[in-house]
Specification:
Helix content of chain A: 40-55%
Strand content of chain A: 5-15%
Mean pLDDT of chain A: 82
Largest interface: A-B, 38 and 38 residues
Radius of gyration of chain A: 19 Å
Largest sheet of chain A: 5 strands, parallel
Oligomer: homodimer
Order of helices and strands of chain A: EHEHEEEHEHEHHHHHH
Distance between the termini of chain A: 45 Å
Low-confidence stretches of chain A: 137-149
Number of helices of chain A: 10
DNA sequence: CTGTACCCTGTCCGAATGGACAGGCGCCCA
DNA sequence: TGGGCGCCTGTCCATTCGGACAGGGTACAG
């Protein structure tokens, strides 16, 4: 049994964790060594347990799964990681891959494919579905960091975006952030340009679709 | 063993189904008699298997879990139903309760509470978390159907809302729907009024938050 | 020190937005 | 045969939005 793959399951839904544990337990070469329901727990348990593979949900209650992954990388912890998410449109998948995830799985994936994915990643391989793979390829082909699909918003732009989503108008946003209305328009214009949106409404929906913004 | 509660699990994520089956199987008085991954399957299997309790996800790949429930009610099938969803802000929860669901559970619910909920509902009780319960109470206290929280959009308004979310402006929406720009403004105004939004951007985010619109 | 990125501010202007009037047509139900 | 509702259309107007000019300040890396 020394060949078993030691797995840590990180997801904020008990059901999903139980589901993963249940189906992973049917495989003789898998053993789930721990669970985590928050980003902080994920870092802590990974450091403590040193699993072979980390199954990580992007939507953790205390912030982002990507943050947890970046936190681990900063601590030089190179656990092989599979992102486990409900949507393949989530921009954060790309962020996660950049942060060192070896692959990702949709929650709709058949269980056999999940087993195979874990074994592949554990064996040193990586695993991406066509959608993500093609987006990454566009990165490589262009050989550039300036990918219109992968915009990096500045902190201030995120502030404006958040208020934009709440339906505030420029003047109100200016009041909230203690800046002039003109400056708000400056940041809004930057958002439209970076997101490729034609107006503030489209900017908000596109940001949501890319996982840059969550409507709480 | 004739006292076992026969359960049908409907969710479009295999993992969630497996998770439910796994934890439900630990209870001697539960038996999962079937699974469904789409709304159509849910109706079909419920009619075929007549489970005691239906665990139903709101987000089914082929449309709405609520639709499946309404379809069952139209066929006079009164299976006791628990909605199983990730968000408690979803307007569809209220729709589901109106369609005859006895309760709902968040996917973040601890497994013991899930067991208890199933037994409660099977025993003829109902089960609502404080958030949903209070919203329903507001319905009853007001004794009215005109609940500002539960707006009913007309088909045309939904058309406009969908295009609004894509960032189209009035003139473009008019072209898409083959109506005048003025009429678009009429429907937009109706949306703002019904949703209580101050502008189109807020209307879109509020609609998404209430489950009236999904950003595909 | 020079470049670069981020943040902030201004004026001017055409276009889009949303509200306040007002009205017509078809359908269904009491 | 009303009345209600959904859907459609119009004009007028104040406000908002977004772009096209401009520019200045700070912080940090090479």
């Amino acid at each position: 049994m020394s060949e078993q793959i030691r797995i840590l399951v990180a997801d904020d839904h008990p059901i999903v964790r139980d589901g993963l544990i249940a189906i992973l337990s049917t495989q003789a070469d898998f053993v789930v060594v721990g669970e985590a329901s928050t980003g902080a727990e994920t870092i802590e348990r990974t450091l403590a347990l040193s699993p072979d593979v980390l199954l990580l949900d992007l939507a953790m209650s205390d912030g982002d799964g990507v943050e947890a992954l970046i936190g681990l990388r900063e601590r030089q912890h190179m656990v092989r990681t599979i992102i486990f998410t409900a949507y393949d449109t989530d921009e954060r998948i790309l962020s996660a891959v950049r942060a060192g995830a070896q692959g990702y799985l949709l929650k709709g994936t058949p269980r056999e494919d999940i087993f195979q994915a874990i074994r592949t990643v554990h064996a040193g391989g990586s695993l991406l579905t066509p959608v993500v793979a093609s987006r990454l390829l566009r990165h490589i082909e262009r050989g550039t960091e300036t990918d219109p699909e992968a915009v990096a918003l500045t902190p201030r732009e995120e502030d404006v975006l958040r208020l934009l989503a709440r339906g505030l108008q420029n003047k109100e946003i200016a009041g909230q952030l203690h800046i002039s209305e003109r400056t708000v328009k400056f940041h809004v214009a930057a958002l439209l340009r970076k997101l490729g949106a034609g107006n503030r409404t489209e900017a908000v929906t596109m940001a949501v679709q890319r996982g840059l913004l969550s409507l709480s």
